[in-house]
Amino acid sequence: MRRSARVLVVGVGGLGCPVALVLARAGVGTLRLCDDDVVDESNLHRQILFDASSIGKPKLDEAKRVLEHEGARIEVTRTRFLPEVARELLEGCDVVVEGADNFPTKFLVADACARAKIPVVHAAAVAMHGTALAVGARGAPCYRCVFEDVPPAEAATCAEAGVLGPMVGVVAALQADLALGFLDGKDVAGTFVSYDAERDFLRRTRIAARPSCVLCGGGARRYISDMETTVRIPAPLRTLTGGKDEVTAGGATVGELIDELDKKHPGIKERLLDEKGVRRFVNIYVGEEDVRFLEGLKTALQAGDKVSIVPAIAGG
Q1: For the chain, which has fewer Cβ within 10 Å, the N-terminal or C-terminal residue?
Q2: Where do the DSSP E strands lie in 91-227?
Q3: Does residue 225 surpass a pLDDT of 80?
Q4: Phi/psi at 89 (nearest 5 deg)?
Q5: How confident is the model at residue 316 (pLDDT cuts 50, 70, 90)?
């Protein structure tokens, strides 16, 4: 399974560098790296794929050069993990390892993986503390069970709080171990590991799903605030969108998306739907698929989906 597996590494930083190296040496066949930054001298103590000759160069180029020598196939995507590229980044992946340095990205990865039903291992390290959490394909328990939502205030960054290179390496090793556990078919979902480097204390436990969790809790809606869908608007409806040919709205399904669209652009729902569902002379596409041939208004939306509204036309 390892040789045929594809693992997405979100962020080639203090965690992503050692994680990618461990996975490559452990026999993972393909690593897909996602980052848009360049190597900075202040990070060399923990970003172990780089050296002084790498300073100022794109992280992806330097990481690919090193990791290919470890026998892995390296795919690179020069972007951060954003809603508009999430689906493309996750396509074909067996596991995701997330080592982003900011909370919005961490929560976006959590939400996108839950929708795509792909296991993800989250990790974080700052100052002398670090954590790793394995979330299975079924999505429960999940990242939001523990951390709930993006903090209202900015958390301290590595630059502000400092971070020990060896401590980050320990957390990355724990993260890689959990990712390999998924690939090897082990039951690691829900495993939460915390490491206190100051006390040299490691704690490994299993967490339970939180019933009120907005992402995986029973009966809870999918959390979609960070994963809005782009909707293409045809000319006849642009009077309702202020002339815009593309707008965004949130929703876990096509029906929820239309409800949100109507809140932002009153009147659009009645132009699209009637008591039977999608109006006879309106077509709604998710990607290239007409929702009539999917699940109609119950069609689930994935991160990065594009929805097109196409009115029926006749001509010759």
Answers
A1: C
A2: 95-98, 120-126, 129-135, 191-196, 201-206
A3: no
A4: -65, -35
A5: very low
Kindly report the average pLDDT of the chain as a whole number. Answer: 88
- For residue 52, count CB atoms less than 10 angstroms from its CB and return exposed for 0-12, middle for 13-18, buried for 19 or more: exposed
- d(CA 178, CA 280) in angstroms, rounded, equals 50
233 φ, ψ to 5°?
-105, 130
CA distance 64 to 44: 16
- Per DSSP, the three-state class of 32 is strand
Look-up: residue for tokens 């309106």? Answer: 282
Q: Is the pLDDT of residue 220 over 50?
A: no
* 158 is an active site residue: yes
Token digits for 43? 């990070």
Is the model's pLDDT at 158 over the cut of 80?
no
Strand segments, DSSP code E, in 83-212 are: 95-98, 120-126, 129-135, 191-196, 201-206
Average pLDDT of 288-305?
A: 81
Give buried/exposed letters for 74-98 (b at 16+ CB in 10 A, else e).
bbbbeebbbbbebbebbeebbbbbb
Is 34:10 a contact under the CB 8 Å cutoff?
yes
Q: Which of 142, 158, 213, 216 is catalytic?
A: 158
Q: C-alpha angle with apex 103: 29 to 261, nearest 5 degrees?
A: 100
- Is the pLDDT score of 304 beyond 50? yes
Q: What is the pLDDT of residue 156?
A: 53
